[in-house]
Each structure stands twice: as structure tokens, then as C-alpha cells.
Amino acid sequence: MVNLTLAHMTLLSVVGARPNFMKLAPLARALARRPAVEHVIVHTGQHYDAEMSDTFFEELSIPRPQHNLEVGSGSHAAQTAAIMLRFEPVCQAVKPDVVLVYGDVNSTVAAALVAAKLGTRVAHVEAGLRSRDWTMPEEINRVVTDRLADLLFTPSRDAVENLRAEGVPDDRIHFVGNIMIDSLVSSLDAARALAAPRRHGVEGKRYVLVTLHRPGNVDVPDTLVELLETLAVLSVESPVLFPLHPRTRARIQSLGWSAPDGAHLHFLDPLPYLELLSLEFSASLVVTDSGGLQEETTYLGVPCLTVRPSTERPITCTEGTNRLVAARREAILSAAREALAAGSRHPVTIERWDGHTAERIAEVLVDGARYT
Question: What DSSP character marks residue 334?
Fold first, then answer.
């Protein structure tokens, strides 16, 4: 077993996209309470738009990154390579005891590769998730990162079993719980106080919240048109609020598509975390292809339709409120109408999704604790 207990520790967190920031925030707070720990934050700039990045640091009270690699957009290869080239000298200068990586984005695998090749220990927050869909770049990132990591912090029991099946020794695996829920729990009161449904004209109404950004849904014109037409039909029955990821907005604009008369499909700019959470909390239904929203809606008891053939978070389907649906009109409308007709919320309790995951991670890193 790797013993990480030291009189003084330097930990380096690498983040690059908005799901990373929600995972970093509670751990940054937990580490700040430990005087023997120096915590250095590196922002790769994978998400460089202010609405996709800067507001999350402000709302979640994350310390400003000491380093910003300003990588920006590009192909998967170009972005991953750029992060590696720019992160390596930072890692060499800081000389951290552990590099912490989060989730499954390109920043995650790029930083893990650099650290591993420098002989620096790697800790993966949100390890062990598997969709078994190799068409998803995120699946490749997850598997490679977990293979490189010395410490694997898992959000659920099924993630532990995935790692064991791949031959990962038990002493590297720590079942600490879901750190995304830490951010949700700490932010929920502030999110509710925003009263975002009132500001968007849906207070007291049955409404649907939508987020879609994955290439399989938005980069194929025929699929995107079918999804938009489906949402337009659904919006006649219940207003639909659709904050647009920049790539999704660009694809819609390239199609020249607009909602038909009578539809109540409202395209919104990317929303800050608290505003999105405020809308999510009061929604009657969420339609998404995001991983994080599958987890958040499960915790909140909000029905969720995930427009994907598979999920790396199957516990949200077996124990939560999530349901996978095909990107086809009848499949989505049928499932949406069924969920809206049911009407009631079903709060879900999942083991260690309790708002204390970050403290457990800090205990492992700093105190040498074990969580099994």
C-alpha cells in the first residue's frame, strides 16, 4: 500500500472543464482546513469561455488557479498534446507529492500521463466509471487514467467492482462516495434562493429542462433535427428550457433551424452553476446527455431522461430516477409523457452520496485512511 502521510504535502489539482470545477470545489475546501497541505491548482483552459469556466470559480468559491495553461479548443489529439506540453514544466517546477485529476475529460488523461511519466503519484477522483462504449472519448480517458492512477477514488460500489474486474489491487481503491453531491448539497440553499424559475417565466409550472452537447446527438444533422423537432412537440405540452452549450448552438445555427409557431422551446445562453441547479431543482423533467445531471437529478428525485445508448453511471438507472432513451421522437415523447404524468418526486438515498466525500478523500491523502 502507498503511504502518503507526510509532515508537509504539496498536492496539485488539474482541472479544465466545468464538471471538474464542481468536483474540485469541495476538495479544495477540505484541503484548506489542513495546515500541512499546500494545494496548487492548475486550470488547463480546456473550457476557456467565461460562462463555461470563470463563473464556476466565483460561485463555488474555488481559489484562483496559480497556473492557467490557456489551451483552448482543438481536436482531441491537439488539445491533449497541448495540455501535456504545457503541464509538464509546471509539474516539474511544483514537484507535487500527488497530482489530482478529476472526471474524464482530456485534461484528466493528459495530466495523468505527464505525472506518471515523471514518476509522480496520480490520484483519480471519480474513478472506476465505465460505459463500455468505446465510441465515447470519455471512456478512453477514464480507462487510461485509472490504469495510471496510484489512488482511485470511486463514487459508487459498481465502480469498485469495475476496477477489481480490471485487476486493480484493492489497496489502490477507495470507495469515498460521489463528490459531485458535495457541491450540490453545499450549493442547494443558494440555488433555491435565486428563484431561477421565476426569472425564466416558469415558476409554478410544469416545465422541462434540457442540456445536450455530445457529438452523437448534436454533430449529426439528422439526429439533431429530430431532437429539436421532438423538443418542439414536447414544448407545446410543457415549456422547455434549453441552455445551449457553445457547440450545440453552433450546430443549430449551421442548420438554420428555428422552433415552429406555437412551440415554447426557449434557447438560453450557458448558465452559471447555481442558476442551472435552481432550474433543475424545480423541473418536472430533465432531458440530458450529461453525466453530472444524471447524478444530481437522482439525488434530487427529479425524473431524468438520458439521451444515450449507455451510461457510465448505471446506478442512477438501477437505484435512481434516470432512464436511458434513444435519440428518436417516439422514444423520447413516450418516456417524457410518462414521467410528466407520474408527477411525484422520489428522493433517492445512495451509499456515501452524503456531502462528505471530499473530507474522506482528504483523510486518505493526508492521514493515510482507508475507505472500502
Answer: H
C-beta pairs of 59-63 under 8 Å, 24+ apart in sequence: 59/187, 59/272, 59/273, 59/274, 60/21, 60/22, 60/25, 60/183, 60/187, 60/273, 61/25, 61/29, 62/21, 62/24, 62/25, 62/28, 63/28, 63/32, 63/39
**CA distance linking residue 230 with residue 83, whole number of Å:** 38
pTM for the whole thing?
A: 0.94
One-letter amino acid of 279: L
Catalytic pick from 39, 213, 245, 264?
213
Q: Is 213 an active-site residue?
A: yes
Residue 1 pLDDT class (50, 70, 90 cuts): very low
Q: Could you give all domains of the chain from N- to C-terminal order, each with its CATH number? A: 9-177+352-367 (3.40.50.2000), 186-342 (3.40.50.2000)
Angle between helical axes of 329-342 and 221-237 (0-180°, round to 10)? 30
Q: Look up residue 108 and give its amino acid.
A: T
